[in-house]
Write a structure and sequence with these properties.
There is one protein chain. This protein is an alpha+beta fold and 492 residues long. It has 2 domains: 244 residues, Glutamine Phosphoribosylpyrophosphate, subunit 1, domain 1, CATH 3.60.20.10; 179 residues, Rossmann fold, CATH 3.40.50.2020. It contains 17 helices and 22 strands. α5 crosses α6. The protein is globular. The mean pLDDT is 95. Bound molecules: 1-O-pyrophosphono-5-O-phosphono-alpha-D-ribofuranose, glutamine and magnesium ion. The site of magnesium ion (MG) has 3 residues, from loops. Its EC number is 2.4.2.14. In the C-terminal section; belongs to the purine/pyrimidine phosphoribosyltransferase family. One of its GO terms (molecular function) is amidophosphoribosyltransferase activity.
Length: 492
C-alpha cells in the first residue's frame, strides 16, 4: 500500500506535506518523495527509506511553492529501486508529477501500447509510471488553449477506460493545478478537505482522513469511485464523477489492517469497524465454543488491539497486554522479503511471562497472512509457560493474492492457501484456531452504510471486482513471489 497527499495552499506546503507523509507512514516504509510547484517550476526530492530518513530540514526548505504532492511507497510492482520512488515526472505535453496508491492489473499491456501506439517510453517496472504516461497521453490531445476542467475530466475518463485495477492518484500539472482521481470501483481510498486560511481557502487530498484532522483541514468528503477532483492554482475546486464509475467496493483490507483506526474511509470509521469485528468474533466463539476454558485474552500489537478489547469484554475474560512491541520497529507485514519479516517479528514483539504462565491464552490478531507472526508468537507464548495457546483472527483465512495494491502476489506464500482451518492450525502450532466468517466481517464493517455496493474482499473470497485476465495470477506469482525476487537479486 502507499500513501498519497496533495495540497493547494496559500503559503509554502513542503513542511505540511512532510507532516502528512509521516502521518501516512504506516502505508509505506520503503520510499518517500515530495514534488512542489513554484512559479511554473517543479521541485522534487525523493529517496529510499522512511520519511524522516529521506528528508533533511534543508531538503524540505528547498522545496518551495504553495502547491505540492507527496508519496510514501510500499511497492507492488518493480522493487525498491530509487528510480521507482514517487512522485514520478514526465515533461510532455507539460510538466506532470504523479503519486499513486494501488496496482494496475493491465500495466504490461498498457506499457506495450504506450510504446508502440503513443510513442512513450516506460523506463522502470513500476505500474505508476504507466499510469502517469497514460494520463499524460490523454492530456496531450487536449492542451490546445491551456487545460480547462472539462479537458482534465475528459483525460481522466480516458485513464478510466484504459487502466484496470485499484488506484487513487494525485497529480501536479505545471501551470494548471492539482488533479486527484480514484478508480471506477473505489478500491483504493482518497478524501478531499478544505481549510479557511486568512489568504483564502486551501485544499487537501489524502489517502486517509487522519491527515486532515492533524493538519487542521475539514473533511469535505471521500472522492467517489470514478471521481476526478481538480483544484486550480487559484484555489478553485472542480469535481466530476465519470460515466465509467462502476461500483462502490472499497478494499476490505484497509479496514482490517491497513488504515489507521482514527481514519474515516467511505463514511465508515475504521475504529468502529474494528470494534464491531471484535464483537462479531466473540459471538462466533461463544456460539461454537460455549464451554471455552480461556483464562486471558491478549492482542497481537498493534493493529488487533481495537478488535481485541470488545472481544474480551464480550467473552467476559480478562484482557491483558501480554505482548510488548518495540516501537522503533516498523510494520513487519509490509517489509520486503520473508527473511526480514521473520527476523523483525521476534525483535518487535516480546512476551510478559506472568501473563502466560500456567494459563490458557487466547491470542487475537487482525489477520493471518503468511503466518509469519502467528507461528512465532505462539511459540513465544509456549516458551513463556502457557498451558494452551488459542488464536483468533478478526478476518477470515487469506487464501488468495491481492492484486490492487497490497503486496501479497503469490498464493503459495499464504499460509491459508489450499489448507483447511485444521491444517492451518497445525502449521502455525496453535491448540485451536478461530477465524471470523466473511459475511460477519462484511456486516461488521458496513454497519449502517447503505451507499456501498459491497467490498473488495478478494483476498478472502477469490472474487476480484475488476475481473482478471486468464493466467494473470500465475504470471504475477512467477514474477513477484519472494523466490522469484531473490533469484532476480542474486542474478543482479
Ligand atoms: O501473517 P503475517 O504474514 O505475519 O501477517 C499478519 C500480521 O502482520 C500485520 O502486523 P504488522 O506487524 O505488519 O503491523 P501492526 O503492528 O500494525 O500490527 C498484521 O497486523 C498481523 O499481525
Ligand atoms: N502499494 C502501492 O500502492 C504501490 C503503488 C505502485 N504500484 C508501486 O509499486 O509503487
Ligand atoms: Mg499485527
Amino acid at each position: 500500500m502507499c500513501g498519497i497527499v496533495g495540497i493547494v495552499g496559500r503559503s509554502p506546503v513542503a513542511a505540511r506535506l512532510y507532516d502528512a507523509m509521516t502521518i501516512l507512514q504506516h502505508r509505506g516504509q520503503d520510499a518517500a518523495g515530495i514534488t512542489t510547484l513554484d512559479d511554473g517550476r517543479m521541485r522534487s526530492a525523493k529517496g529510499l527509506g522512511l520519511v524522516r530518513d529521506v528528508f533533511s530540514e534543508e531538503a524540505v526548505t528547498g522545496l518551495t511553492g504553495e502547491v505540492g504532492i507527496g508519496h510514501v511507497r510500499y511497492p507492488t510492482a518493480g522493487c525498491d529501486q530509487p528510480d521507482e520512488a514517487q512522485p514520478m515526472y514526465v515533461n510532455s505535453p507539460c510538466g506532470i508529477a504523479l503519486g499513486h496508491n494501488g496496482n494496475l492489473i493491465n500495466s504490461e499491456r498498457l506499457s506495450r501500447e504506450l510504446f508502440v501506439e503513443d510513442r512513450r517510453h516506460i523506463n522502470t517496472e513500476s505500474d505508476s509510471e504507466v499510469l502517469l504516461n497514460v494520463l499524460a497521453h490523454e492530456l496531450a490531445g487536449r492542451t490546445r488553449d491551456g487545460l480547462h476542467p472539462e479537458d482534465i475530466f475528459a483525460a481522466v475518463d480516458g485513464v478510466y477506460q484504459r487502466c484496470r485495477g485499484g488506484y487513487a492518484a494525485v497529480a501536479l500539472i505545471a501551470g494548471v493545478g492539482l488533479v486527484a482521481f480514484r478508480d471506477p470501483n473505489g478500491i483504493r481510498p482518497a478524501v478531499v478537505g478544505r481549510r479557511e486560511a486568512p489568504e483564502g481557502p486551501e485544499y487537501i487530498v489524502a489517502s486517509e482522513s487522519v491527515v486532515l484532522d492533524i493538519l487542521g483541514f475539514e473533511l469535505i468528503s471521500d472522492i467517489a469511485p470514478g471521481e476526478c477532483v481538480f483544484i486550480t492554482l487559484d484555489g478553485e475546486l472542480h469535481r466530476k464523477v465519470s460515466d465509467h464509475a462502476a461500483s462502490y467496493t472499497p478494499c476490505m483490507f484497509e479496514y482490517v489492517y491497513f488504515a489507521r483506526p482514527d481514519s474515516m474511509i467511505d463514511d465508515l470509521s475504521v475504529y468502529k469497524a474494528r470494534l464491531r469485528m471484535g464483537e462479531a468474533l466473540a459471538e462466533k466463539i461463544l456460539q461454537e465454543w460455549p464451554d471455552h476454558d480461556i483464562d486471558v485474552v491478549i492482542p497481537v500489537p498493534d493493529t488487533s488491539r481495537t478488535a481485541c478489547l470488545p472481544l474480551a469484554h464480550q467473552l467476559g475474560v480478562k484482557y491483558r497486554e501480554g505482548l510488548i512491541k518495540n516501537r522503533y520497529i516498523g510494520r513487519t507485514f509490509i517489509m520486503p522479503g520473508q527473511e526480514a519479516r521473520v527476523r523483525s517479528v521476534r525483535r518487535k514483539l516480546n512476551a510478559i511471562s506472568l501473563e502466560f504462565r500456567n494459563k490458557n491464552v487466547l491470542l487475537v490478531d487482525d489477520s493471518i497472512v503468511r503466518g509469519t507472526t502467528s507461528k512465532q508468537i505462539i511459540q513465544m507464548a509456549r516458551e513463556a509457560g502457557a498451558k494452551k495457546v488459542y488464536l483468533a483472527s478478526a478476518s477470515p483465512p487469506v487464501r488468495y493474492p491481492n492484486v490492487y495494491g497490497i503486496d501479497m502476489p503469490a498464493a503459495s506464500e499464504l499460509v491459508a492457501s489450499g489448507r483447511s482451518e485444521e491444517e492451518i492450525c497445525r502449521v502455525i502450532g496453535a491448540d485451536r484456531l478461530i477465524y471470523q466468517d466473511l459475511e460477519a466481517l462484511e456486516k461488521a464493517v458496513r454497519g449502517k452504510n447503505q451507499r456501498l455496493t459491497g467490498f473488495d474482499s478478494s483476498c478472502f473470497s477469490g472474487e476480484y471486482v475488476t475481473g482478471l485476465d486468464e493466467g494473470y495470477l500465475e504470471e504475477l506469482e512467477s514474477r513477484r513471489s519472494d523466490a522469484a525476487r531473490m533469484q532476480r537479486r542474486r542474478s543482479g
